[in-house]
Amino acid sequence: MRAPNSLKQEFLKKWKSGLQICSSCSKNMSIFERKKAIKLSADVAMASARNGRTCWSRALIANASKNDNNKLLVEHILGNSEFQRLNKISIMRPTMSNKRVRCKKILKRSCGTIRRVSKRVVPQKILASCVAKRLSTKRTQVLKSLVPGGEFMDDVSLIEETLDYIMSLQTQIDVMRSLANATELVLRSKNEQW
Amino acid sequence: MNRGSLTEMLHCTDMTVLERQRARLKSQQQDQFHHQQPEVEERSGYFSELSGVFSGPSHVSQVPGFDGAAAGNSMIGPVKADPGSENGWSEMGKILVPGFGFPGFEANFSISRTASCTPLAAAAATTTAEVKDKISGAAAAGKVSFKKRKHDKIQNTKVVVEDEIKDKRLKGCAEEGDSKITDQNNNNNNNNKENSDNNSKENSKVSDVQKPDYIHVRARRGQATDSHSLAERVRREKISERMKYLQDLVPGCNKITGKAGMLDEIINYVQSLQRQVEFLSMKLAAVNPRLDFNIDNFFAKEVFPACPPANFPTIGMSSEMNTNPAYLQHQFNPLQQQIVSCSGNEMVINPPDMGLRRTISAPVSIPETFLDSSCFTQLQHLLPSSTTWDADLQNFYSLPFDQDRSTTFPSHQLFTGSIEASNLKTEM
């Protein structure tokens, strides 16, 4: 078991209510709109299943509720009192920047610099430690851009949050995959019946 | 006269005798009273101390045995009571030893019995340390008596007591991990053999030593000791500890040493997870045209038994889905080819990429996964122009195949995961 079942159930419950809201809001959606709605509701449900205790979930909710269209959905998934509480927290904290850095590019660029530096510089102890530090800071920045709300974390809390984020992502993926599989099974059985 | 005088004399002598007897009785009574009172006081004092030392109920039950041993030795002369509470045990040894060697041994034996019970019930490590030292004091007293009267039984019990103490000390070392207390214990052990007074002093010292609530940082040789670098070292240790947890959580991270490599791996893993979420939400969006999942039907039987069914209005699947499987197969074959060629192209374009080693395994397991998924037939219905869809699909699938490890997971793996993750959950 990757995560406790209670977390999965909580997530599923919230996700379900979010999906209900989505489907009641707009009937005719294209597949990409639907995908976006599903993803957003799943993310927010996961964040709220973590109960707003972690930084990344709060940041994710704050990011989601920035958009007016999504605000209703977020509010519904969280429940009203929870929403107010988290909004207060997010107001107190600095507002998250919405832009997403292209992480792959940065990674590639950093890889390039490694090669260049290692070719140019004669291996000395101080320089080596300098290079190592630069490498790790670059990767830390990339990781900060990946974890929601990671821009405002120090190193220790960043790694803790990453741990938690990975755990909850795994839970989310497990639930989503099982749902997809179940849907498939139902579809296949219907196809066979017909 | 004579008679009278005799009678007088007799009377006198009687009187004197009587008086003498009375006086003697009185004095005896007073003496006894005086003797008994301090004894009683002492005993009550010691017993209060005893019950103070052994706060647990099991120890109280052991105390009456000790009481009996002490009561049997009522012939012991009064000894002035020492007010120091920590000296109680060694004092007790002193009291009992000069009177009889044997009762002293008895008392020691009863003490050792009580002591053997104490570490089981003692909650705090410091209290066990205290008790241990008091026991060792008692053992020292037993040794004094042993020197006075060479008795085989006493030797046996002494050996037993010492063994017990050794065991407890080992336990204490394992529990506390604090070098200070163990060092003092060792000192105690050495001092015990010489002097019991020293021991009592040591006792008071040890009882003062509490388990520290601050983080213990030790600078090695050549390391800086100012507060900044110490704090920095603590921070680094914290980070490396969390990194170890992450190493357990992220698959394939065990063999990599170095922070940069591990961060790389973690970044890749997080990216892959996020892409999996994207992919799965896309899949679900493709399967369900109205965002209505009759989740309760799916999960009531199989996965989530605790979810109450029939909360959600179950709306049947749309009638678009009645395509026969042969058509489905037909539709999928070109799709597979596209996927394979797509990943093949990537392999040609940038072979030195690290992510490609994982991509190679992708075409093997992907077709099975996607053959099962009947979602793509629906796409054909939904999207009028198939050319745009193909382009989209290519874009979409070239993404997760790049560094995705979703392909290594079997598709039917519902809720099997690593056990370390649950461990980690508890630690967090």
Automatic annotation (TrEMBL), chain A:
Biological processes, Gene Ontology terms: regulation of DNA-templated transcription
**Which residues belong to any copy of the IBH1-like N-terminal domain?**
5-67
Q: Per the UniProt record, which residue ranges are transmembrane?
A: none
Q: Where in the cell is it found?
A: Nucleus
Q: Which UniProt keywords apply?
A: Nucleus, Transcription, Transcription regulation
Which GO cellular component terms are attached?
nucleus
Query: Which Pfam families does this entry report, sorted A to Z?
Result: IBH1_N
Protein name per the record: IBH1-like N-terminal domain-containing protein
Automatic annotation (TrEMBL), chain B:
Task: Provide the GO MF annotations for this entry.
Answer: DNA binding; DNA-binding transcription factor activity; protein dimerization activity
Bias-annotated ranges (Basic and acidic residues)? 194-212
Keyword DNA-binding on entry: yes
Q: Which subcellular locations apply to this protein? A: Nucleus
Please report the stretch or stretches of sequence annotated as the BHLH domain: 223-273
Q: Which GO cellular component terms are attached?
A: nucleus
What this protein is called in its record is BHLH domain-containing protein
**PANTHER family, from UniProt?**
STEROL REGULATORY ELEMENT-BINDING PROTEIN, TRANSCRIPTION FACTOR BHLH62-RELATED
Keyword field: DNA-binding, Nucleus, Transcription, Transcription regulation
Natural source organism: Dipteronia dyeriana
| Segments of this protein annotated with the region Disordered | 175-212
Spell out the Pfam families in the cross-references: HLH
Top-rank taxon of the source lineage equals Eukaryota
> CDD domains, from UniProt?
bHLH_AtBPE_like
Where does this protein chiefly localize? nucleus
The reply to whether DNA-binding figures as a keyword in the UniProt entry is yes
